[in-house]
């Protein structure tokens, strides 16, 4: 599998570490309930088809990416950099969010 | 079968005789032979015993699909079980032995299994050994495993080398037969980078050795943009057009030459792929169809044409299509007599009739072979009339004498790679075969693998596929001239005959020869409800052997379709998975074996440690000094001496392996304050603080000291094991959770060398060796961090203590590590300073009750380890919210305490703590031991452990039990702070 890293270009999946479900947002600790935390830390869907995931390019630019991937075909729709450096690297493929 | 060498013909070199041995007996063959063809030429017809019934088996094919002739090649460390004799190239001195027989191939005791036939039908193991008789499995497993199966592997290390190759190309062509050759030629004409790979020893497929193929290949070989790979099996089709292939570089010689790899694994990334993988002939089922002498018709042709070997002296042919007549023609040309042609069709074409007439064979149309006759080898066949609707008729069987029967039931396109990278296979009713489905990756199929069996059409299709592939890469191919093949007059369209047995036919009818799955096993599976293809496969193990059902899958499906009264496509097929043919583990492992399995990390002082007698031990990827043994010291004596000397005077330990992360930015302090469970906002410049990191779920994760070097710069240290995960997590938090924080993090683990100087004399030693630092308690207080110089080299000095003694950590640039280390040791000489290893490091920390990896095991909380005071209540931090969960605040949780051995026995890590008076079996575990050592300070064996109501039990006597070794030690529960609990020694 090749992941289109917006900073480095298409790279082999072996350079990346899977970071899990990227649709989960960390709760605001000021207002979150125990259920919110339980959901964030433990509950994960296992979708068949399109999924948005975190991937860490640890053997490359070390950026964290959000990647839209089909879990059946492994086709990658798009990838984008997460965080303050996102603006510096163009998104790859279709919008991830 | 009575095979023999023909006096002429074949693509063998009769000037190069080769000597070889099978089961210890010596034979002779020629260069260009396979092991199978050479044995066949010598009249050998018994190659092995079958998997379950130990029935005698001979050659069935001439290629990778071979289910029967599996042999162990070579001996000793190079012994390789389950190689197919049909693809083993003969070399001088080759040694092979048969498998799954005892005491000998000709007389096999286990052959009596076939008398117990019904016992071993589908589902035998489940039915016999599940439920109440389950325990019997324990008793019989050994014997069953011994009786059933294939060859035995060697336990000796592989002496050979394997290489890995990464290749990129525009067009990969898999298969170098008529279609593949033309595809490669067409694609190469555009200037595309082309790789043409074929599993056989020479390229050309069915054209092998022909003048036109030689010319074509020579033309391709002369092009810089073409790579030709013979003996290379493309076995797997993976995501993003990545394909796996194995090139057998030196499998066809006794041993690889000096420096030569045995095999080379290719990872090929292709823009476009052309699959020209051909087709494999399939048999027709009849009674005792596994008798040695029964083989596929095209295999008979190949042995004659390629190897100059006749498969028998009285050859009969059984067919339902014209393909078999190609074999008849080849045999006739070579002067091999064909006595009878049994064809299920009532009418055949003029060309086939002419071939039959020329052969002089008796032509029996509208008839089928219902049974093979003979003992250990074929002696004849039974033939009966056949009706396309009713099938074969009982009674009125005619017998024909034959020592070889060539069978052709039509062709099964080799769609394995297409299936791995495509949609469900398509059923073709006229070919009665599955064809490649829709491509889900950029490949196109050409030739026999998509059902085109005519040579001229294969050429045209290949050329078109190659040109299209080049165009898809944005290149312009030139038109290529096609070899002048005349249109094939023979029609390979078969009459659908799968099982030729009459209703009351005799003998076992094998569908899957390698796994001994019979037609009645399939009926049984149907009766018992295992009707879907996936159930059928698992219940009967049809198609699950090393040949993966290459000659049996479609027949198996057809028989299930007959039982279910459905069409074959309605029954469906299973999806193919890699590998196409078996791949050696050596090829997959490549160079990543032994010490090259993973990288080794060495600290800057590594060579010094080794030169000075350190016994090194692995800590993750790192090598660290364990002890510096003197004379004949035991490990315990060595670390006790080292620890004693640290407490008495001074010692130094290499701590370079700790993870080191540079944290910089305007918000660095705020960031650390959110990451650590204790406060970091108010940490002043020039000070270090011990910090705890939790996981989001509230459990303890990592610990270490973090040093504030300036307002905006911190040096964080982590445990050796968590250096990489902690950095990844910090990067994640800065990217995904708090992108607003202005902080950058980077690993500096390899940039700094670190050493801890510990002991009451550490201040004096460092004061004498540092150029410019005031080492007084006032100038460098506990937890203070200062920049200074040593012999002019810049260093960081931090007053930290893991040992409980007055101690400092000295960090310097990694390149200066050994110089600084040596200089400090030299300065320590007057004080008897010693280097100490990680054993003594552990002893000193256990004596102080400091936690480390064994306590931070992912299941403990800060409170469990007596560190509740370090979890702030005034702020949010990673893990703070879930730390309040019931399960994590339960007072029944195990708590950290210390133990001393009450009877002088050595306490074992992992031992369970039980009440002394608990006589139940097993006794109830109250907790367990995590870290143990002999304490030279206490002169006792001591330990840390996790215990129910731990602190309340101080003073109690318990037993640390280790049932695996039957070791019980009486222990007393004590505080985990064994030594200097007030910490007076490090504050001087």
Structure in words:
Chain A is mainly beta and 97 residues long. A 5-stranded antiparallel sheet of chain A has the order 3-4-5-6-7, with no helix packed on it. Chain A has a two-stranded antiparallel sheet with strand order 1-2. In chain A, strand 5 and strand 6 form a beta hairpin. Chain A has one helix spanning 34-42; strands at residues 2-5, 9-12, 17-21, 50-56, 64-70, 76-81, 92-93. Chain A has one domain: Folate-binding superfamily (Folate-binding fold). Chain B is an alpha+beta fold and 988 residues long. Among the domains of chain B are: 598-657 and 749-859, Gyrase A, domain 2 (2-Layer Sandwich); 663-747, Alpha-Beta Plaits, CATH 3.30.70; 891-988, Aminomethyltransferase beta-barrel domains (Elongation Factor Tu (Ef-tu), domain 3, Beta Barrel). Helix content of chain B is 22%, strand content 28%. In chain B, 52% of the residues are buried. Classes of the chains: A mainly beta (97), B alpha+beta (988). The A-B interface holds A 1-2, 17, 19, 22, 26-27, 29-30, 32, 34, 37, 40-42, 54, 56, 58, 62-64, 73-74, 81-85 and B 238-240, 440, 696-697, 724, 728, 731-732, 734-737, 739-740, 876, 880-882, 884-885.
Beta-strand share of residues of chain A: 35-45%
Mean pLDDT of chain A comes to 94
Q: Could you give the count of β-strands of chain B?
A: 50
Reported for the largest beta sheet of chain A, the result is: 5 strands, antiparallel
From the spread of the alpha carbons, the general shape of chain A counts as globular
Interface with most residues: A-B, 28 and 22 residues
Low-confidence runs of at least 5 consecutive residues of chain A? none
Based on DSSP secondary structure assignment, what is the total number of beta strands of chain A?
7
- Main CATH class of the domain at 598-657 and 749-859 in chain B: Alpha Beta
Task: Assign the structural class of chain A, choosing from mainly alpha, mainly beta, alpha/beta, alpha+beta, or little secondary structure.
Answer: mainly beta
Instruction: Supply the number of helical segments of chain B.
Output: 23
Helices of chain A, by number, come to 1
Say what oligomer this is.
Answer: heterodimer
Shape of chain B: elongated
């Amino acid at each position: 599998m090749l992941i289109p890293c917006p900073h480095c270009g298409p790279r082999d999946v072996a350079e990346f570490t899977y970071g899990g479900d990227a649709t989960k947002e960390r709760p605001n600790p000021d207002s979150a309930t125990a259920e919110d935390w339980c959901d964030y830390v433990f509950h994960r869907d296992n979708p068949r088809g399109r999924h948005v995931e975190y991937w860490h390019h640890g053997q490359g630019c070390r950026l964290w990416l959000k990647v839209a991937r089909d879990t059946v075909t492994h086709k990658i729709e798009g990838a984008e950099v997460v965080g303050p450096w996102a603006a510096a690297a163009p998104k790859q493929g279709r919008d991830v969010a | 079968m009575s095979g023999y060498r023909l006096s002429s013909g074949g693509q063998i070199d009769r000037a190069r005789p080769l000597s070889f041995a099978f089961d210890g007996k010596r034979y002779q063959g020629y260069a260009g032979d396979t092991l199978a063809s050479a044995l066949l030429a010598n009249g050998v017809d018994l190659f092995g015993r079958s998997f379950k019934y130990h029935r005698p088996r001979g050659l069935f094919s001439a290629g990778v699909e071979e289910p029967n002739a599996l042999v162990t090649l070579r001996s000793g460390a190079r012994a390789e079980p389950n190689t197919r004799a049909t693809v083993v190239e003969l070399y001088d001195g080759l040694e092979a032995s048969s498998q799954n027989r005892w005491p000998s191939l000709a007389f096999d005791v286990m052959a009596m299994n076939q008398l117990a036939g019904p016992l071993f039908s589908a589902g035998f193991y489940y039915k016999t050994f599940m439920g109440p008789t389950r325990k019997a499995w324990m008793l019989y497993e050994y014997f069953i495993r011994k009786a059933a199966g294939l060859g035995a592997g060697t336990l000796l290390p592989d002496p050979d080398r394997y290489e890995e190759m990464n290749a990129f190309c525009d067009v990969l062509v898999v298969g170098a037969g008529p279609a593949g050759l033309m595809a490669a030629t067409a694609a190469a004409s555009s200037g595309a980078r082309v790789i043409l790979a074929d599993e056989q020893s020479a390229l050309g497929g069915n054209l092998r050795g022909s003048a036109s193929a030689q010319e074509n290949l020579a033309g391709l070989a002369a092009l810089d943009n073409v790579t030709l790979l013979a003996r290379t099996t493309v076995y797997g089709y993976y995501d993003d057009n990545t394909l796996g292939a194995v090139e057998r570089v030196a499998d066809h010689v006794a041993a690889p030459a000096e420096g030569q790899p045995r095999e080379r694994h290719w990872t090929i990334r292709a823009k476009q792929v052309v699959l020209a993988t051909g087709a494999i002939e399939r048999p027709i089922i009849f009674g005792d169809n596994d008798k040695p002498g029964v083989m596929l018709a095209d295999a008979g042709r190949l042995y004659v044409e390629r190897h100059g070997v006749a498969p028998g002296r009285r050859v009969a042919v059984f067919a339902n299509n014209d393909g078999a007549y190609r074999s008849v023609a080849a045999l006739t040309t070579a002067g091999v007599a064909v006595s009878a042609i049994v064809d299920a069709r009532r009418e055949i074409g003029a060309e086939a009739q002419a071939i039959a007439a020329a052969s002089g064979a008796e032509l029996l149309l509208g008839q089928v072979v219902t049974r093979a006759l003979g003992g250990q080898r074929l002696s004849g066949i039974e033939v009966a009339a056949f009706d396309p609707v009713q099938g074969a008729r009982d009674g009125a069987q005619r017998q024909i004498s034959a020592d070889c029967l060539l069978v052709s039931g039509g062709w099964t396109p080799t769609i394995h790679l297409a299936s791995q990278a495509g949609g469900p296979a398509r059923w073709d009713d006229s070919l009665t075969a599955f064809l490649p489905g829709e491509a889900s990756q950029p490949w196109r199929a050409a030739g026999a693998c998509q059902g085109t069996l005519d040579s001229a059409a294969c050429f045209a299709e290949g050329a078109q596929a190659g040109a299209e592939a080049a165009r898809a890469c944005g290149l312009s191919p030139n038109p290529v001239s096609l070899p002048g093949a005349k249109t094939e007059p023979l029609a390979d369209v078969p009459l659908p005959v799968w099982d030729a047995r009459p209703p009351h036919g005799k003998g076992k009818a094998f569908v899957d020869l390698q796994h001994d799955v019979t037609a009645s096993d399939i009926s049984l599976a149907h009766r018992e409800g295992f009707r879907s293809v996936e159930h059928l496969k698992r219940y009967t193990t049809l198609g699950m052997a090393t040949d993966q059902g290459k000659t049996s899958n479609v027949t198996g499906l057809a028989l299930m379709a007959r039982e279910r009264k459905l069409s074959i496509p309605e029954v469906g097929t299973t999806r193919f998975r890699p590998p196409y043919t078996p791949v050696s583990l050596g090829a997959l492992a490549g160079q990543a074996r032994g010490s090259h399995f993973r990288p080794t990390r060495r600290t800057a002082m590594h060579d010094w440690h080794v030169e000075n007698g350190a016994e090194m031990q692995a800590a993750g990827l790192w090598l660290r000094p364990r002890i510096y043994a003197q004379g004949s010291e035991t490990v315990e004596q060595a670390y006790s001496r080292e620890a004693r000397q640290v407490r008495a005077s001074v010692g130094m330990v290499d701590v370079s392996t700790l993870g080191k992360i540079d944290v910089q930015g305007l918000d660095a302090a705020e960031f650390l304050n959110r990451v650590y469970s204790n406060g970091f906002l108010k940490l002043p410049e020039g000070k270090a603080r011990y910090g705890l990191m939790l996981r989001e779920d509230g459990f303890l994760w990592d610990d270490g000291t973090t040093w504030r070097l300036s307002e905006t710069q911190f040096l964080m240290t982590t445990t050796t094991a968590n250096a990489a995960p902690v950095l990844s997590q910090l990067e994640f938090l800065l990217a995904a959770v708090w992108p607003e924080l202005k902080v950058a993090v980077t690993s500096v683990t390899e940039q700094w060398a670190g050493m801890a100087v510990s002991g009451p004399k550490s201040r004096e030693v460092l004061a004498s060796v540092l150029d410019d630092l005031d080492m007084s308690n006032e100038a460098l207080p506990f937890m203070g961090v200062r920049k200074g110089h040593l012999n002019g080299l810049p260093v960081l000095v931090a007053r930290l203590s893991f040992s409980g003694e007055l101690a400092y950590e000295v960090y310097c640039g990694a390149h200066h590590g050994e110089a600084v280390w040596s200089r400090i040791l030299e300065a320590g000489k007057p004080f008897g300073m010693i280097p100490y290893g990680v054993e003594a490091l552990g002893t000193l920390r256990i004596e102080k009750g400091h936690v480390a990896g064994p306590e931070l095991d992912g299941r403990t909380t800060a409170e469990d380890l007596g560190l509740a005071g370090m979890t702030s209540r005034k702020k949010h931090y990673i893990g703070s919210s879930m730390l309040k969960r019931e399960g994590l605040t339960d007072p029944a949780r195990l708590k950290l305490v210390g133990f001393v051995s009450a009877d002088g026995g050595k306490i074992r890590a992992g031992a369970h703590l039980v009440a002394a008076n608990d006589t139940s079996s097993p006794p109830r575990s109250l907790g367990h031991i995590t870290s143990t050592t002999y304490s030279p300070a206490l002169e006792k064996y001591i330990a840390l452990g996790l215990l129910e109501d731990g602190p309340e039990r101080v003073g109690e006597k318990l037993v640390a039990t280790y049932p695996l070794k039957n070791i019980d030690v009486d222990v007393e529960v004590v505080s985990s702070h064994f030594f200097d609990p007030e910490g007076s020694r490090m504050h001087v």
